[in-house]
Every structure is written in C-alpha cells, then in structure tokens.
Design goal:
By secondary structure, the chain is of the alpha/beta class. It is built from six helices and eight strands, in the order E-H-E-H-H-H-E-E-H-E-H-E-E-E. It has two domains: 100 residues, no CATH class; 111 residues, no CATH class. Helix content is 28%, strand content 16%. The strands form three sheets. It has a four-stranded mixed β-sheet. The protein has a two-stranded parallel sheet with strand order 1-2.
Length: 213
C-alpha cells in the first residue's frame, strides 16, 4: 500500500490510525516497517489503537488484563520472541507509549475509534472512548467543521465509499484487512486527505488463522 499504491513521497505525511499489535501474524514487523519509514526520512504520525493499549496494559498492570484468547496471546509473544509482554524490547514499548490518541489537523480530526458526541466538546472524550467507542452520532458543528477519520470497527468497502461520497461528518476507514476470510472485508484502506480519494488493497499475506468477524 505504502510503496506501490500510495507511492509515498518525502513531501507527503502518512497518518496511521492504530492497531499495529495482534492484527495479523506480524506485529513486530509492522512496527519495524514504521521505524524504517522514519529512518528513511518519511513523515509518519501513528495514533494508538486499543490493541496497542492492550500491550501497555499487560506490561503496566499484568497479563491478567489481556483479553486475547490464549492462542492469540501466544502468537503475539512468539512474534516478538518473548515469553511475556514485559520482556518485549524497550524500543517497541517506548514507541507505543509515545503514540497520541488524538490528532487535530486543519480539515480533519484523527482518532482510532471515535469521539463522545454527547459532550458539548467531543475533544474532551475520555481516553477509553477514544480507543474503544463503537457508537457515535457525529456532528460537523461539534467537530468545528472538520471531518472525523477513524477505524476500529471493520466495514465493507462499499460502506466506506458511500461515506466518503456523501461527505459524512465521520468516515470509518477500517476495511477489515485482517479478516480476509470474510468476503465483506479483507482490504487495507487509505484516504488521500487533499484529494479525498480512497485506495483499497486486498490482503496479500499468506493465509493465517484468524477469527472471522
């Protein structure tokens, strides 16, 4: 997606909406690739997702907080080459700790899951809801006429295309890439913020076991 579809250029700014951990078999390699982009001089801003927070909770509060199945937990630990989350190399933990939960741009607000629009100022949404909310009634007025871009809940490609075409206040860009076994999902999605142009790429990894949504 980055190199062949978007064809990222040095003058571009790439924003990623979170969940680098436990979304497929290569969590460590995902972060390593982000590190590579940064070393090569590309501008990359990564937001924190609820799966990334899960790793921090396991380190800070204990592995009893991890709600993954034992199988998924072991896959992630094996991928990092450790027996417990606290043993993951410090550069990965530090990277996740550094990730913002909210990014405000001139025309857009970026977050992993969403905002609480029952508040007079949704930007005061709790950290938990920024990472986990599943229900919103977005208002352009409350967004300061910006559009909200988020992920968290996978949507079929036509639903994402419709939201962009209708210029809805909130656009979910999660096309369920990891859930490649479900015919409705299985795409990676990107949005050119300047041209408001969508890009989709089918999951091209070798088959791996994943719970079907």
């Amino acid at each position: 997606m980055v190199e062949e579809v978007i064809q990222l250029q040095p003058q571009d700014h790439l924003y990623l909406l979170g969940d680098y951990i436990n979304k497929g078999p290569h969590s460590k390699e995902v972060i390593d690739y982000i590190f590579s982009l940064q070393r090569w001089g590309f501008r990359v801003t990564c937001l924190r997702g609820n799966h990334d927070q899960l790793l921090l909770d396991a380190v800070d509060k204990g592995e009893h907080t991890v709600w993954l199945t034992e199988e998924d937990k072991q896959k992630t630990l094996t991928n990092f080459g450790v027996a417990q989350f606290a043993d993951i190399a410090p550069e990965y933990i530090s990277f996740i700790r550094s990730l913002p939960l909210l990014v405000i741009l001139e025309d857009y607000i970026l977050v992993h899951a969403g905002l609480d629009f029952t508040l007079s100022n949704p930007l005061l949404t709790s950290n938990h809801n920024l990472l986990n909310t599943k229900r919103m009634q977005p208002s352009l007025a409350k967004l300061g006429e910006r559009r909200l871009l988020h992920g968290h809940l996978p949507l079929p490609r036509p639903s994402i295309e419709k939201a962009v075409a209708q210029k809805r206040p909130a656009i979910n860009l999660d096309a369920g890439c990891v859930y490649y076994q479900n015919q409705e999902f299985g795409h990676l999605c990107a949005l050119n913020l300047d041209k408001v142009e969508l890009f989709f790429l089918p999951n091209s990894e070798a088959p791996y076991p994943i719970k079907v949504k």
